[in-house]
Each structure stands twice: as structure tokens, then as C-alpha cells.
Amino acid sequence: MKLIIKYVLVFIAIILLAIGVFYAVRYFLWRASDDYLALEYTKHLEDQYKNDIYGGFTPEETLQLFIDALKKGDVDLAAKYFVIEKQDERQQALTNWSHLNKLPAIIATLEKAGGGKEIFPGNYELSVANENNETEFIIDLRKNELTEKWKLEDF
């Protein structure tokens, strides 16, 4: 009788161990999956947006803050007015433009921006026109819904 109980307990232990290994493997495979990595990236990005203090409460205010930072030569601050996903890329570009002494021309062009319009909720466009009142380029802004601040998306 004791031998049967011993075999039953060993069998149950093996089953429990197998179940534990099965779930451990599933867990580690999930952690390495693209779905998990995308979920973690999204959570990280959302945390960054929640804590983002840079930008204005209107698209025009954000553009002005960006221009003011460029006038001071503070490309690190200027880059923070872009959407979080593009800040590193824009910081490098602004640094390069600064070294090439192109910031004054960029500032002069950006100061001509006007004719803003909301494309759809949370997205806004400002345009820069030439002497013939033709649009030279568009400045895209996006609203951070978590902080109600506007961020530069592209120009």
C-alpha cells in the first residue's frame, strides 16, 4: 500500500513539474514574441507621453516655443517639441543644421507660418507660403491627448 502511495505521489509530482515547465516555456516564449515587445513599447511610449511637459496648448504656441528655442541655439530643447517618436532623429538633424549655420534661415522660414487648419481632431497644419502666396511647405502638429499639449510632427 505504501509503495502505491509513493508511486502516485511521484506521478503527481511529475505531472505538476511538466505543467510548470509547460507554462514557464510559454511565458518565456511570450516575453520574446513580437506581440509582447510591441505591448511593452506601447506602454513605454504611453508613459513618456503622460510625463511630457513640452509643447503649447495651441499649435501656434508650440511653433513659437520651438522657434524661441532655436533662436537661443538650444537644439536639445527644440527637439523636445517634436512628438516623442521623432525627438532623437530631429535632435540630430537640428544639431547638424546648427553646425552648418542653417538655423537662422530655418527660423526665418518658420516665422512665416500661418493659415493653420485642423485636418481632423488632434491633427493640425500650418503652412508657409512664398512671395506668390503658394504653399512652400507644411508644418504638421499632433495633439498629445494625455497632456493636451501640441507637438510638432513634421516639417
Overview of the molecule:
There is one protein chain. The chain has 155 residues and is of the alpha+beta class. It has 2 domains: 2-50; 59-154. Helix content is 55%, strand content 19%. The chain has helices at residues 2-31, 34-50, 59-71, 75-79, 87-99, 103-110, and strands at residues 114-120, 123-129, 135-144, 149-154. The protein has a 4-stranded antiparallel sheet with strand order 1-2-3-4, with helices on one face. The radius of gyration is 27 Å and the shape is elongated. The mean pLDDT is 91. The chain crosses the membrane at residues 7-30.
Instruction: Summarize model confidence as the mean pLDDT.
Output: 91
Low-confidence stretches: none
Q: How many domain regions?
A: 2
Order of SSEs, N→C?
A: HHHHHHEEEE
Structural category: alpha+beta
Care to count the β-strands?
Answer: 4
- Cα end-to-end separation: 82 Å
Assign an overall shape.
elongated
Sheet-strand content, in percent, reads 15-25%
* Major sheet: 4 strands, antiparallel
Widest sheet: strand ordering:
1-2-3-4
The number of distinct helices, counting runs of at least 4 residues, comes to 6
C-alpha Rg, in Å? 27 Å
Percent range for helical residues?
Answer: 55-70%
